[in-house]
Design a protein that fits this description.
3 helices, 11% strand, 3-stranded antiparallel beta sheet, mainly alpha, single chain
């Protein structure tokens, strides 16, 4: 059984004849041809490629490199000085911290106190050191040095 092409249905108020119907169907079924374009043979692009430097460019780069070397050394020295300054501040703060911590822990601190050294006390050839603020004996009694014994003789002969 062969299929016959469908006839175009006339729109309201219009009547289509066979030629119009065929032309309409043919135009609907065939795709419209695309406009022809010219073929591109080449295009321009930019690429990063190695280029040999001129003597002037090398000399300019050398001068710039020397300047950067000086700047780098200067900045490194500045960093070193800054680090030393910060280290000193940290060390100073740590020392103060340690002293204060020890003062609190021991509930005392070392201070210069006026003392009296008594010769030939508690016996001849010995000496005793006593604090003058509390009159406590400081440490153990010690032997007098030869020099201190000479002072004792000089003092007795003058009286």
């Amino acid at each position: 059984m062969t299929k016959l092409p469908k006839k175009a249905v006339p729109q309201k108020g219009k009547k289509l004849d066979d030629k119009e119907s065929f032309a309409k169907k043919e135009s609907e079924s065939k795709p419209k041809p695309k406009p022809k374009t010219a073929k591109i043979d080449s295009k321009k692009v930019i690429k990063d490629l190695r280029v040999k430097l001129t003597d002037a460019e090398i000399q300019a780069s050398g001068a710039e490199l020397a300047d950067l070397d000086q700047l780098l050394k200067s900045v490194k020295q500045e960093k070193k000085d800054f680090n030393n300054s910060i280290k000193k501040r940290i060390d100073d703060a740590q020392e103060q911290f340690d002293v204060l911590s020890q003062r609190i822990r021991e509930r005392s601190e070392i201070r210069p106190i006026e003392c009296k050294v008594s010769f030939d006390t508690p016996k001849i050839g010995m000496k005793r050191t006593t604090r003058l603020d509390t009159f406590e004996v400081v440490g153990k009694d010690e032997r007098m040095t030869a020099e201190e014994m000479q002072l004792e003789l000089i003092g007795k002969s003058e009286s």
